[in-house]
Amino acid sequence: MFALVDGNNFYVSCERAFRPALKNRPVVVLSNNDGCAIARSNEAKALGIRMGAPWFECRQLAEEHGVVALSANFVLYGDMSDRMMSVAAGLGPGQEIYSIDESFIDMTGVRGDITERARRVRERVLQWTGIPTGIGIAATKTLAKLANHVAKSADRKPGSYPAELARVCNLASLPGADLDAVLQATAVGEVWGVGRRIAEQLNEGGRADRARPGAAGPSDRAPALERGA
Amino acid sequence: MNSINPPGATAFSPGPRMPVAWVDGNLPAGFPSPAADFAVKRHDLNELLITHPAATFMWRISGQSMIELGIFDGDIVVVNRALLPAKHGDIVVAEVDGDFTVKQFWRRAGVVQLRPANPTFPAILFRDGQTMTICGVVTASIKRFK
What is the largest CA-CA distance in chain A? Predict the structure, then answer.
């Protein structure tokens, strides 16, 4: 069993932890030399500012809507990442830090209600560091990534998934029918490792359950995915 | 091999193997420091001031509102976010109207206040429906004289 703990809009959340006036406002963090938007608050995402969008392209839109644009402060983000990781490590016996804002926790041998445990760890990360996170739990890392996507989407866009999956989503605890419903509601391109091309191949009817091992016969799936993509 | 030996040297050949007893333990080779038995660790300010490294932040104070509790303009306060929820009497960092402020947390008879420690400042009162976020508890104040 794996959990993926991932900071929400991480760079923006780091800035907000020290500047509460940025809460509930559209905020973007720009890459070195203020080139591209590399983190966007939910409000900025809602305005249609894309990930990686060059700042000169979205500047006019941003100024019209009062977007706060910040130059990246990677020293701060690195320190906040260390703090977040060390608290998240309490979730289980093993940790693989996958990027500045996400780490996989190996949940092998953890007893009791792991969904409840994850909720408590999420609260602790939020209280201790000020960083909101999403936690996805499932049998494999790929499914944990997907569970994390569900946890964040359900939190950010109410109605996209059942509300009880918001923030912490344990796919392993869902009854089969509910799991199928979640996968049905997910575009196949959201599955880790399924890019644009494979998504196109899978997209005849393409929801995420197409990529679920054992969900359909091998002949039912695209050759690329069978090869282990 | 012979070619690198000086003239007249005999070539080394290993003799019969001899077992050598292994004596466990340390063999002192020098006069031990008389102070060794009294060695102590030096004070580490981080250890002294920080109990939760992941949850501890330092802020520089600006303003005079807490002088009667010994927190002055320019001091650095150690703020622990793991000690929440705050208790009556704690010195806290609170978020009020989009800004951080340091005040004393006061909760008596259902009334919550943030009290300054300076008679020339007003207390911040909270009533039902108002939100106040306590972000951390001040555990130390660092004052530099030079």
Answer: 54
